[in-house]
Structure formats: structure tokens, C-alpha cells
Amino acid sequence: MTTTPYDGTTAPEADWDTAPGLLDGAMKLTLGPRDCDLAYWITSVAQGTLRDRGETGHHKDAGVPDFLRAPGPLREALVLEFGFRGLSEEIATRLLGHYVAIAPGVPEMEFYATQLLDEARHARVFRNHLVELGMPEATLLADIEAMAADYRRRVLQPVEDFTLDIVRDQGDFIGGVAVFAIVIEGVLAPAAELSERKWTPLSPATGEISRGTAIDEIRHLTVASTILKEHLERHPEARDRVLEIIRAGADMWDVVPDREFVIHREELFQQGMAEHADKVGDYEIWPGVRMLDTTADQRYDMAEHWTDEMARTRLAYMGLPPDVLGTQGTPS
Questions:
Q1: Exposure of 115 by Cβ count < 10 A (0-12 exposed, 13-18 middle, 19+ buried)?
Q2: Which tens digits make up the pLDDT trace of 309-323?
């Protein structure tokens, strides 16, 4: 039996070197479920984005610096960030099983099957990075559960319950797409962008993990936006229902106490960054602004600004009012 080897062709938005940043990609690219089917995922993602990075999320030459393995506020900030993000991605993976089950067509089914794999991979690389930081692998899951118990109960559980009600209990696929793309990932993506920018000058491995997950998130956000746009064009009577769900999701974020968890982590990062200022140097976290000159509140507020900017752009693309989300928080 002969096989044809993969020829190395990767879609530019999935290529490690040519993919845009998360914010630019999510706001400017147009991709649909037929563009990002199972064959696309196997070639451009599994054999493209993840080439040489499939196991850990980073290249073997991108290491974890010794100072991040040592006790201190910087390591604690990273453990909290990746622990919480790993748990969030695990919950997302379990939720996506319902999307696959009720997808109305094969293109949508294949796309959400690949997103399920993406989120499971994200959870795995976030968890395993904690082992690279020195957390014991044998007790890792239990340690994360204990560390994130309050966060799960107060932040993640309301989001999970909200989503399950729509996609599992009501069987509303389009409503579920709106929840995941606009309410959940639409809020989480700018925080992921901030994570990549923060850790890149400090840890090659951490920066690469964040870069790889961001490339995936571009695809998730743009394809879901296209699914919603095309559905509303075919079924304009569904517009009010979609808006109702988006508004309810925005109201949920208004009462979820995400800021206290994020700010606590950013304050730890602030202390650790000051201790390792020589490693950060003049690195700019966004154009014209040195990371060393930012505060925890400023970084949080910038991620919140990115959230609003991205939401306005994508909602306008779908023909929905850009202000439907109001002002959201920026969870981990």
C-alpha cells in the first residue's frame, strides 16, 4: 500500500509564521465551516500549525526559563492563569459535544468536531505547562481543581449552566453558536491576546503555547460568525432570538465576578515583572507602550477595550447592532 505524503501546504491563517494576531485575524478574516472542514484541520492544523509542537504546544527549542520554575509572584501568576485557562478549556470541550450532536449539517458537524479537539488540546497544553513549571504530574488534576474551586463555582459554573440550557436543554444550535462565539469566546479571546503579549518576552515556551491557541481561536471566532451571518440572512425572523441570547449573555457577564480573579493574577504578574525587569527591557506590550510602564488595571482595561472593539466589528459583519453587548468584563 502506498501513501501520498503531506506536501507541507498550510493555509496562511493557520501557518505559524504567517498567521495574523488574534485580534486582527478575528476582526478581518472571513472563514466558513466549508473552508475549515475536517480535511482542513488535518492538513493545516494538525500537520501545519502543530508541526513540531503537537505534544507540548511549543517547539522543543522554546524552553521554560529557570526563574519561572522558582517560587515567586511571576510563577504564581502563570500557574493561576494557565490553571484557570486549562479548566475553562476542559469545560468548553465538554460543552462542544452537544454542538456536534445537534449540528444541522455535515460542514457544521465537522467544524465543531475539530473545535472540540482544539479545546481539548488547549486544556492539555495549559495543564502540562504547569508540570513544566514544576507542579507534580501525579496530583495535577486534583491540584488544579482545588486551586480553581472558587473560580469554577463563581465564574465558570454560571457560564456553563447558561450554555447548557440553550444548546442541550433547548437544542438550539444557532443560539448555542451565538453563546459560544459572541458571549464566551468573544470575551475570552482578548484576554488570550493579552496573555500572549505578556509572556512572550519572559518565556519562549509560554509565548508559543499562547500563540498556538490564538491561531485556533481566530478560526473558531470567524467560522462561527459566518455561520450566524448566513443563518440570519436565510432566516431573518431568528434575529430577535439571537439578540435576546446575546443580551442575556452580556447580562450574565455583568454579574460574574471575573475581575477580582484577573486583577489578583495581574498584580502578581506586576510584582514578578518588576523583579525581572532586566528580562523585559523596553519590550512594548502594545505600540508605544512599554510593558514595564503598565499596571494591572491598565492591562485589564486594554483587554476590555479589545473585547468591545472586536465585538463591534464581528456583530456588524453579522448585521447585528454593535452595541448589543454593552460593556463586558474580561475573564481569564
A1: buried
A2: 888 888 999 999 987
